[in-house]
From TrEMBL:
Residues 182-398 form the Histidine kinase domain. Residues 128-172 form a coiled coil. The lineage of its organism: Bacteria, Pseudomonadati, Pseudomonadota, Betaproteobacteria, Burkholderiales. It is an enzyme of class 2 (transferase). InterPro entries: CheY-like_superfamily, HATPase_C_sf, HATPase_dom, His_kinase_dom, HisK_dim/P_dom, HisK_dim/P_sf, Sig_transdc_His_kin-like_C, Sig_transdc_resp-reg_receiver. This is histidine kinase. Its EC number is 2.7.13.3. The modification 4-aspartylphosphate is found at D61, D467.
Length: 544
């Protein structure tokens, strides 16, 4: 709707002479008083003008053919936007009390009788123009105030958001600092034990019993370091969506039973009352990852339950899910901590994993792995010293028919394959070669990629163990060259590498390797790999 800065006055009269007289009279004071004049010659035209403009006052003739002044006034005031426009009726007849009442009922504010006295017309019009100007001024002030209020509100929201982001950043920074400090602590402990045990092995006159004990400590602490690295890498992969699950139908109760047997074999369950109820329940999942989940939950229950306490482990089925529940009578979880038990890198005061050592990422990894399987996990506790319960729900599938396991192949000592070890780290190469020699494998060594290719092509071994991060040419290029050479095209190639992401495993196989093993490699996995036939199908072996 077009608008003007000046108030407008609408003059409605069907008589051209009267309309001209009123508009001409009003035009005389228009510049002085500050308004503009609009005219209409019928009630219908007046309504059209009201649709187009806002008016300070309407001078409306009462006696008009078709739609008279009363009907026009009623129509104008029925519209919400024009309901408050003041109307002055103009008439040549002296209105009686009934006419005045009728006019006021239809929104009239006053009457003018013709012939109109100019001074009275100017006075009445000036009042309504001044009122319109004041209303417009108030409206603009209200608009400015509303705009300023909106700006202040937006600024306040921005400040609150920035303060929250700053606090979140500070919490995150503090949590990371605390995590790094905890990581340093967790790494130094096994490193200190390994260093002391290695020093003991080198002491002159050390007893065989002490040496054996030192070797056990080195092995155990090395495995502990490996678990720390694996947990960090697994959590990073899980959070970035880079874990590729190798799903197949499996019975969760069988998997849980196997995990529990491992804890029993290592003596971890000694001193606890372990109650087990395992109902067959089939899910589609990655066995390795679900073993991680189960082991983390059982380990968590053992860690936070004093000796003599009870731990309940159950697998059950409902209509659509298989449910794994691990309950304990341990230290419990406080109400302030309960919502955060699955968070990663939270403050140490609210991290269940850090109270008793550890990196505080085990339960975070559990949640992410379960979610990758399409399941859910939740925790419950009645508070400190009241134990806790962790429950995992995985989508249930129909039971699968299990095939009989294939008999394990053993490699006769007389036919053990010759091995070429291509590794640039002298200590690692020496220890690996010594270990293989202890198992009676013929081993040759090469310190870089080019030397390894030359040694393999000059005297082809049965198996080549190749590090990926080699100087000169890397392990990928070594594999490509050996696959291209007629003498080494069909030899078995096994990658030994610290690179353990799924894309690293894929790249290894694409380069021509038969197998991918992640350092530090469990000797049993390596011996199994060496015992397989050279024509075995390429596969990916899980990290040690």
């Amino acid at each position: 709707m077009p608008k003007s800065d000046k108030p407008k006055i609408l003059v409605v009269n069907d008589d051209p002479a009267s309309l001209l007289a009123l508009t001409s009279l009003l035009d005389q004071w228009a510049d002085e008083t500050g308004y503009t004049v609009v005219s209409a010659r019928s009630g219908q035209e007046a309504l059209r003008q009201v649709l187009l403009h806002d008016f300070a006052v309407i001078l409306l003739d009462v006696n008009m053919p078709g739609m008279d002044g009363f009907e026009t006034a009623e129509a104008i005031h029925q519209r919400a936007r024009s309901a408050d426009i003041p109307i002055i009726f103009v008439t040549a007849f002296l209105a009686d009390e009934i006419d005045r009442l009728k006019a006021y009922q239809r929104g009239a504010v006053d009457f003018l009788f013709t012939p109109v006295i100019p001074q009275i017309l100017q006075a009445k019009v000036s009042v309504f123009v001044a009122l319109a100007n004041k209303n417009e001024q108030l409206r603009r002030q209200a608009d400015k105030l509303s705009q300023r209020t909106s700006e202040l509100t937006a600024t306040n929201r921005q400040l609150v958001r920035e303060m929250e982001e700053r606090r979140a950043a500070e919490r995150k920074s503090h949590a990371k600092d605390e995590f790094l400090a905890m990581l340093g602590h967790e790494l130094r402990n096994p490193l200190s034990a390994i260093s002391s045990a290695a020093a003991l092995l080198g002491l002159p006159g050390s007893h065989a019993e002490s040496n054996a004990r030192a070797r056990v400590i080195i092995q155990r602490q090395t495995q502990h370091l490996s678990r720390i690295v694996d947990d960090l890498l697994d959590l990073s992969r899980a959070m970035s969506g880079k874990i590729l699950l190798s799903k197949k139908a499996l019975d969760l109760s069988t998997l849980v039973s196997t995990c529990l047997d491992t804890f029993r074999a290592t003596g971890r369950t000694a001193g606890y009352r372990i109650n087990v109820e395992l109902e067959p329940g089939w899910v589609e999942g990655d066995a390795t990852r679900l073993e991680q989940v189960t082991s983390n939950l059982i380990d968590n229950a053992l860690k936070y339950t004093p000796a003599g306490g009870s731990i309940d482990i159950a697998v059950s089925c409902d209509k659509d899910n298989v449910v794994l529940a691990v309950s304990d009578t341990g230290v419990g979880i406080g109400p302030e901590l309960l919502p955060h038990v699955f968070d990663v890198f939270v403050q140490g005061t609210i991290s269940i994993d850090r109270a008793q050592g550890g990196l505080g990422i085990g339960l975070s990894l559990v949640r992410r792995l379960v979610e990758l399987h399409g399941g859910s996990v939740n925790a419950h506790s009645d508070g400190n010293s009241n134990g806790s319960r962790f429950e995992i729900r995985l989508p249930r599938i129909a039971a699968a028919v299990q095939a009989a396991p294939a008999p394990r192949r053993h490699q006769p000592e007389a036919t053990r394959p010759t091995v070429l070890l291509i590794e640039d780290n002298e200590d690692g190469r020496e220890m690996m070669a010594t270990m293989l020699d202890a198992y009676h494998y013929p081993v040759r060594q090469a310190g870089d990629g080019l030397e390894g290719v030359a040694a393999a092509t000059a005297e082809p071994p049965d198996v080549a163990l190749v590090d990926i991060g080699l100087p000169g040419i890397d392990g990928y290029e070594v594999a490509r060259r050996l696959r291209e050479h007629p003498a080494t095209r069909n030899m078995r190639l096994i990658a030994l590498t610290g690179y353990g992401l799924e894309e690293d495993q894929k790249r290894v196989l694409e380069a021509g390797f038969d197998l991918h093993l992640v350092k530090p490699v469990d000797i049993r996995l390596l011996l199994d790999a060496l015992g397989e036939q050279a024509t075995a199908r390429p596969s990916v072996r899980p990290a040690a």
